[in-house]
Amino acid sequence: MNPIDPNIERLKKDHLDQLSGYIDGLYGKPELRHLFFELTSACNERCFHCGSNCSVPGKDELTTDEFKRILDQVKEDFDIRRLQLCITGGEPLLRKDFFEIMNYAHKLGYRWGMTSNATLITKEVAHKLAEAGMGTISVSIDGLAETHDKLRGMKRAYELAMQGVQNLIDEGAFQAVQITTVFNHENLKEIDELFEIMKGIDIDSWRVINLEPIGRALTRPELMCTPEDLRKMFEFIRKARKDDYPVVYGCSHYLGLDYEVEVRDWYWLCNAGVYTASIMSNGDIGACLDIERNERTIQGNIRSDRFKEVWENRFEIFRRNKAEDASMCRSCEHKEYCRGDAYHSWDYVKDEPIVCMKNILFD
Prior knowledge:
This protein is an alpha/beta fold. It is built from eleven helices and twelve strands. It has helices at about 5-30, 65-75, 100-110, 125-130, 145-150, 155-170, 190-200, 225-240, 255-260, 305-315, 335-340; strands at about 35-40, 85-90, 110-115, 135-140, 175-185, 205-210, 245-250, 275-280, 285, 300, 345, 350-355. Strands 7-6-5-4-3-2-1-8-9-10 form a ten-stranded mixed sheet, covered by helices on one side. Helix 2 (about 65-75) packs parallel to helix 3 and helix 4 (about 125-130) packs across helix 6. The longest helix is centred in the first third of the chain and has 23 residues, at about 5-30. The radius of gyration is 20 Å and the shape is globular.
């Protein structure tokens, strides 16, 4: 762990103190900025790290008309000019009514983006996405060709995904085409080769995250990043950003005073339930889609509850400093900054964080 310049440390603490006060206010007056639609749990890949265990369509998935009704309701209840609709799955393009739903959203005036494995994005599909008003997309690439195909359980997955990315770039109609890479203990050794590939294509950013102990990844503990892996990854991101390459660490965790702002554009904040909500493919209402789905985290269902009522009157579990509930956090000097860290890596039985970067990245 490198010593931090005292002046920079003071500045970051001042910023984080201000952010902490802002978050306290946000708990009382949340602002919906990102609404995720999990269109389906069907997927043509079987990624070992999938947080949602996606593979086949879930039971009782929302119909076309139900998604349209939600879009109508949200437009009635919120200023959608301040809202980004985030489309995901599974692989959202597997829904036969995908373009019917998204063209309807576009007609209503929604801004929207998508997460996809891009294997289905032909030139024709890229054009149809532009016509439907898609502004941004994040495509998953998790290693060089052999590694990516193995991790995603699909032959030619890398080839098809990279062609999909190029089709999106060639369409030239999108605000941002991003690639996201999930690094683990094994594929981290490919980070430098992947970097050369990323620099050779005209993407807008490369989002780098580490494997999380959620979903299917729990079956492969040997692939979790070691402390050395994490430090290597963060040093790589910091150096690349200093060299003006648009690589960014995802929103996963609080990283301590040394790395905060160095590997992301601003300080860490878990958006779950304060800026971000999700409607799952079966209509359940929750916060971030990576969060464990249980009776504490599911806040209602769109078939019986109006989304606005749920957003305004529930979500209490996500609007608190949960570090106050965890014995391992109470004496930590960073607890007002990390607040128990992320909700997707929280143990809802023990009420304590599963992941903590203390003693890995900072003291």
